Amino acid sequence: MTVTLRPYTECKQARLASLGMMPAPWKEKRAKHLFREIDERSQAVKRRTCQ
Known about the structure:
There is one protein chain. The protein is an alpha+beta fold. About 20% of the residues lie in helices and about 10% in strands. It has one helix at about 40-50; strands at about 10-15, 20-25. The chain starts with 10 loop residues before the first strand and ends with a helix.
């Protein structure tokens, strides 16, 4: 199935210069707000204590 993509009508300058222009409806978020760090060592300790 092929879908034709419509271009965004409005663009804005991104705060990060390397991104250049981006569609106006898009929001910029820092990666640290999108991901969380999981320490595998602490997960292993929890598993051992729950047995």
